[in-house]
Design a protein that fits this description.
Layout lengths: L2 E2 L6 E2 L12 H10 L11 H13 L3 H10 L6 H4 L12 E6 L6 H4 L5 E6 L7 H4 L6 H12 L17 E6 L9 H13 L1 H4 L1 E6 L13 H11 L3 E5 L18 E7 L10 E2 L5 E2 L5 E2 L2 E4 L3 E4 L5 H13 L6 H12 L10 H14 L7 E4 L2 H18 L5 H11 L8 H4 L6 H9 L12 E3 L4 E7 L6 E5 L12 E4 L2 E7 L4 E9 L3 E3 L7 E3 L5 E7 L2
Parallel strand pairs: 3-5, 3-6, 4-5, 6-7, 7-8, 8-12
Antiparallel strand pairs: 1-2, 8-9, 10-11, 13-14, 15-16, 16-19, 17-20, 18-19, 20-21, 20-23, 22-23
Helix pairs in contact: 1-2, 7-14, 8-10, 11-12, 11-13, 14-17, 15-17
Length: 541
C-alpha cells in the first residue's frame, strides 16, 4: 500500500512519524517553515527529511559554499554525514588518544585549551618545545584527535567533531623514526588506566596497531585493553585498511570495539553507502571483527600547521581568490613555494586557475586548513565522539551498556557481507536516544551464564517495546516456540535451560515471533547462512 508524503506529494512505501521531542526539534521546525500546515502525525518521507536536514545544515555553513564555489568540491561535515545530534557535545567527558604524535591544534586549544595532558611514552621523550614544533610523526595523531574532538575553530565551526567540548589526553607512542612498538602502546594504556580518575578518562582511541597478530594470552597490548575496559574505560580501535591482512592488537582484543570502514560516497543518501576496504575476519581467539563500521573516507581532517603542505594550501587558495589582473603578479612572487613549473607564468589566467584547482584536488585540500583523508584510523575517533555524546547524555553507563547501545542501534548494509561490517553502520542519533532513556544497571556482565555446579545455562535479553522474547538455538532445533523467556522487570527478559551436551552451541533471541537477534553481550559470534551472526557458547567436557 502506497502512502502520500504530505510535504512533497509523492507516493512512498512508508512515512516517518516518530520524532524525538528534543533531538528532532530543529528538523520539525524546518518542516513547518516549508509546509506550515504539516502536523507530526501526518508523517514525512525520508527524502524530504534528508533534503530539509541538509538545508538546515547549509544555513549554518557559509564556508562550505565559499570553498565549494572555488574548487567545485568539498566533503560533508561530520554532523551531516552521521545525522548526528548537536545537543550533546561531549561535555564532561575525557577522550584519551594514543597515537604517533600530536600538535596543539587550534581546534583543540582555542578559545579554550581542552588538552589536559600530553605525554610521550617513547625514549627519549619529547620536550615541550618539540610538542609546539610540527614534526612528521605529529600529523596522524593531530588528525585523529581533531576528528574525534575538534571544535571547528579554524574553519568557523564548519569542520567540527561530534564532541567539540570533550577534554583530551594526548599520549605519543611513535619514535622519531615513526616506528610504533607494542611496548609503547602498553605504556600508554597503563598511563591511561593509572590516571583514569584524575582526568576522568572514559574513552581511549587507538588508531595504531601492534606489529603482529597475537592471541590474547600472548599480547600485552590486548591484555592491557581488557584491563582498561574492566576499569570502566570504553576502548575503541581502528581495525585496519587491508581486507587481506590479519587483525592485530589492539583491535583483536575481545572487549575492544573494533571499527571498520564505511564509504558513504560523500552523500547523505543511505542507499549510496558501501563498504570501505577495511580489515575484517576472525581473530586468533575466534572473535569476529569489526563490530561496527563508521565513515572512513571523504573525511575532513586538519593539515598540520607549519608544514610545507599547510603553506602550499594557503597559497593555492589565496591564488584562487585573487582577482583577475593580479593573479600573475602574485603567482610570480610565490611560484617557488608552490613547486609549479616556471612556464606556468606564460599561461593565461583561466589556464592558471584550472591548474591551481587540479593541484588542490590532487592534494585533497578542502580549504587552507583542512584536507580530505581516509582510513579506519579516522573511523575510530568518530565512534569515540559518539560515545562521548552518549556518556554526556547518560553518565551512569558502563562500557558494557555502551557497547550494547551501539550494537543494537547500528544499521546493517543490506547487500554487503556481515562479516565485514559486524552489527553495521553506527547510528549516532539513535544511540543517543537509546542512551538517554536507559536506566538499567544490574544487567549480567555477559550472556549466557554457564553454571557448571547446577548444570544450567542462563540467558538474559535487554530490550524495550517488545511483546515477547524467546530463545532459539542449535540445542532446541531453532524452534522459536519451545523456550519462551519471561520478563523479570520492564525491558529485562530471562530464561534458564538445562545444560546442553559438551561442545559448541549457537543461538539467537526472537522478539515478537519475527525478529531474530544476535546477543550483543556475548563476545562470541559466528557467521550463518543468512548473512548474519549467531551467538555462540561452549560447554566444556
Amino acid at each position: 500500500m502506497s502512502l502520500i508524503c504530505p510535504v512533497c506529494g509523492l507516493e512512498k512505501e512508508q512515512l516517518v512519524k516518530l520524532f524525538a521531542q528534543d533531538l528532532d526539534q530543529p528538523l520539525v521546525q524546518g518542516i513547518h517553515q516549508y509546509e506550515s500546515s504539516w502536523q507530526i502525525g501526518q508523517g514525512i518521507c525520508t527524502s524530504c527529511t534528508d533534503r530539509l536536514q541538509t538545508q538546515l545544515y547549509r544555513n549554518q555553513a557559509s564556508w562550505l559554499d565559499r570553498y565549494m564555489s572555488l574548487i567545485d568540491f568539498t566533503v560533508l561535515p561530520l554532523p551531516w554525514k552521521l545525522n548526528a545530534s548537536t545537543q550533546y557535545t561531549g561535555k564532561g567527558v575525557t577522550i584519551c588518544f594514543i597515537d604517533s604524535g600530536f600538535y596543539p591544534h587550534p581546534d583543540l586549544t582555542q578559545p579554550e585549551n581542552r588538552i589536559l595532558a600530553v605525554v610521550d611514552l617513547t625514549d627519549p621523550p619529547l620536550t615541550a618545545k618539540t610538542f609546539y614544533t610540527p614534526q612528521p610523526v605529529s600529523w596522524h595523531g593531530t588528525m585523529t584527535s581533531v576528528v574525534g574532538a575538534g571544535n571547528g575553530q579554524s574553519t568557523e565551526g564548519l569542520y567540527k567533531s561530534l564532541a567539540p567540548d570533550a577534554k583530551v589526553i594526548l599520549l605519543k607512542v611513535a619514535e622519531e623514526s615513526g616506528r610504533i612498538t607494542g611496548d609503547s602502546i602498553v605504556k600508554a594504556l597503563d598511563w591511561a588506566i593509572w590516571h583514569r580518575e584524575q582526568f576522568n578518562i572514559q574513552i581511549i582511541n587507538l588508531s595504531v596497531t601492534d606489529d603482529f597478530p597475537l592471541p590474547l594470552e600472548e599480547s600485552e597490548v590486548a591484555q592491557r585493553c581488557e584491563a582498561a575496559v574492566a576499569s570502566g574505560i570504553n576502548v575503541v580501535a581502528a581495525v585496519g585498511n587491508n581486507p587481506y591482512a590479519k587483525i592485530k592488537p589492539p583491535a583483536s582484543a575481545p572487549s575492544v570495539i573494533a571499527v571498520g570502514g564505511l564509504n558513504d560516497r560523500n552523500t547523505l543518501d543511505p542507499l549510496d553507502n558501501v563498504l570501505y576496504h577495511s580489515t575484517y575476519g576472525e581473530t586468533l581467539d575466534e572473535f569476529f571483527k569489526p563490530e561496527l563500521i563508521a565513515p572512513a573516507i571523504w573525511l575532513p581532517a586538519p593539515i598540520l600547521p607549519g608544514t610545507d603542505a599547510y603553506l602550499e594550501a594557503k597559497i593555492l587558495f589565496d591564488l584562487l581568490e585573487t582577482p583577475d589582473g593580479q593573479l600573475k603578479d602574485k603567482l610570480q612572487k610565490q611560484i617557488k613555494l608552490t613547486r609549479f613549473d616556471l612556464n606556468l607564468l606564460y599561461r593565461n589566467e583561466n589556464e592558471i586557475r584550472h591548474i591551481v584547482k587540479d593541484r588542490i584536488r590532487n592534494q585533497n585540500f578542502l580549504n587552507p586548513y583542512f584536507k580530505s583523508v581516509d582510513g579506519t584510523s579516522f573511523a575510530a575517533p568518530i565512534v569515540c565522539s559518539i560515545i562521548a555524546q552518549i556518556l554526556e547524555a547518560n553518565p551512569s553507563l558502563q562500557p558494557l551498556a555502551v557497547r550494547e547501545i551501539l550494537f543494537t542501534t547500528a544499521r546493517k548494509l543490506q547487500y554487503e557481507p556481515s562479516l565485514r561490517q559486524g552489527y553495521g553502520v553506527i547510528q549516532a542519533r539513535s544511540a543517543i536516544i537509546r542512551a538517554s532513556g536507559e536506566y538499567h544497571s544490574g544487567l549480567i556482565s555477559f550472556s549466557p551464564f554457564i553454571n557448571y555446579l547446577e548444570k544450567t545455562v542462563s540467558f538474559q535479553y535487554h530490550g524495550h517495546n517488545v511483546g515477547s522474547v524467546s530463545l532459539a538455538g542449535s540445542f532446541n532445533g531453532w524452534n522459536p516456540t519451545l523456550a519462551p523467556m519471561h520478563q523479570t522487570s520492564e525491558g529485562i527478559w530471562q530464561i534458564t535451560i538445562p545444560m546442553p551436551p559438551p561442545g559448541n552451541h549457537t543461538y539467537k533471541f526472537v522478539t515478537d515471533g519475527v525478529n531474530w537477534l544476535t546477543d550483543p553481550r556475548n563476545l562470541y559470534r559466528e557467521p550463518n547462512e543468512y548473512n548474519d551472526f549467531n551467538s555462540r557458547f561452549t560447554i566444556l567436557s
